[in-house]
Amino acid sequence: MITMAELTPEMKEMFAKAPVYPLATASKDGVPNVAPMKSVWLIDDRTIWVADNYMNKSLANMQENPRAAIYIWGPETKGCIQIKGDVEILTAGPEYEKMRADVKAKSDKYPAKSLIRITITDVYSCAPGAGAGDRLL
């Protein structure tokens, strides 16, 4: 059974203001990878979509270990959170087609190879201070 967490209105506002979304993954052997993502959407309170335009190590890691984390921070966000979740990789279907159309509307140069759908399971604080690392959801 998948455990889900729902983002608060404050967390959703932080998400919307982030300039880039570092996506962290790890292989089944625990080899980490982090890559900056720009084609990222908060679909609802517990679902994030990431377009796979140029993923290599990240995609391989998620195929072996379907978990990921996204770091939300920037001068505009007024805070810092880490969102963890369960991953599904989609290459067909209505959600994939919607993501592909959105990406292609920005530019035909982006391949939109697959849709990474993240179901949010946990949210942690990553702001410095006494609450650093605390689980928020």
Annotate the secondary structure layout.
Elements: H1 9-17, E1 21-26, E2 32-37, E3 40-44, E4 47-52, H2 57-64, E5 67-73, E6 80-90, H3 94-106, E7 114-125
Antiparallel strand pairs: 1-2, 1-5, 3-4, 4-7, 5-6, 6-7
Domain Pyridoxamine 5'-phosphate oxidase N-terminal: 7-125
Pfam families: PNPOx_N
Organism: Methanofollis liminatans DSM 4140
Task: Write a compact overview of the structure shown.
The chain is α+β, with helices and mostly antiparallel strands. The protein has helices spanning 9-17, 57-64, 94-106; strands at residues 21-26, 32-37, 40-44, 47-52, 67-73, 80-90, 114-125.
Which key phrases capture this entry?
alpha+beta, Pnp Oxidase, Chain A, 137 residues, single chain, seven-stranded antiparallel beta sheet
- List the secondary-structure elements in sequence, H or E: HEEEEHEEHE
Which structural class fits the helix and strand makeup? alpha+beta
CATH superfamily: Electron Transport, Fmn-binding Protein, Chain A
Principal-axis shape: globular
Proportion of residues in extended strands: 35-45%
Count of distinct strands: 7
- Uncertain ranges: none
Helicity, as a percent range? 10-25%
What is the CATH T-level topology? Pnp Oxidase, Chain A
> What do the pLDDT scores average to?
93
Whole-number total of structural domains: 1
Query: Cα-atom Rg, whole angstroms?
Result: 15 Å
| Main sheet strand line-up | 2-1-5-6-7-4-3
Oligomer description: single chain
Number of helices: 3
**Second CATH tier, the architecture:** Roll
Specify the biggest β-sheet.
7 strands, antiparallel
Report, as a whole number of angstroms, the end-to-end distance.
17 Å
| Name of the level-1 CATH class | Mainly Beta
Organism: Methanofollis liminatans DSM 4140
InterPro entries: Pyridox_Oxase_N, Split_barrel_FMN-bd
Protein name: Pyridoxamine 5'-phosphate oxidase-related FMN-binding
Domain Pyridoxamine 5'-phosphate oxidase N-terminal: 7-125
